[in-house]
Amino acid sequence: MTRTGLTLEVLRGAHGKDCTLGGVSSKHETLTLMGIVKYRTSDPKRIVHSLPAEARSSEPREDAPPVALEVRLFYHGPVPTLVPTWYDAESGHWLINPGSTIVGGNFAYGHDARFRAVMREALGYEFYGAVSVHDRKETYDWQP
After folding, report:
1. What is the spatial distance between Cα 9 and Cα 130, in angstroms, rounded to a whole number?
2. What is d(CA 10, CA 12) in angstroms, rounded to the nearest whole number?
3. Beta strands 66-74 and 77-84: pairing type?
4. 104 with 134: CB under 8 angstroms?
5. 49 vs 10, 35, 115, 141, CA distance in Å?
6. Distances in Å between the alpha carbon of 13 and those of 7, 34, 108?
């Protein structure tokens, strides 16, 4: 598994409020796209598949943490989201944590054709625009 990805720029609302509850997109101006997870599965360790070699240019850094493009399937078709990922040295794979993350209000985009090519490959259609960053985790202590 490769340790390089594609640098993305973070976009935030003009109001300046953080709705991520401390998610990675609230703390950094850039993120590093490491790969793609196509559709949700029952596998608790969702493996991130590498980007094509021509799309990889930089390693994740402290100021550009790793994310994965997760394609979520809704009734109207595939929807792209970006989710935090981590490298598991034991398996040699980038993984997405089990559990759900939700949108925190920020977006990210790539400024060149490599990002559009990755999006086209992942979604199966031409996509132009920013992608929602799903880096908000909520915990509920629900009592019946």
Report:
1. 9
2. 7
3. antiparallel
4. yes
5. 22, 5, 15, 34
6. 20, 25, 12
Facing residues of 82 across strands? 69, 133
Q: What is the chain written as a DSSP string?
A: ----BEEEEEE--TT----SSS-HHHH-SEEEEEEEEES--S-SSEEEEEPPGGG--B--BTTB-EEEEEEEEETTEEEEEEEE-EEETTTTEEEE-SS--B--S-EEE-SSHHHHHHHHHHHSS---S-EEE--B--------
CA distance 80 to 127: 9
Prediction pTM value? 0.88
Identify the pLDDT of residue 27. 93
Count of CA atoms in the C-beta half-sphere (13 A) of 7: 12
Is the pLDDT at 142 greater than 60? The verdict is no
- By residue count, the chain amounts to 144
Which amino acid belongs to residue 32?
T
Cα 73 to Cα 112: distance, rounded to the nearest angstrom: 26
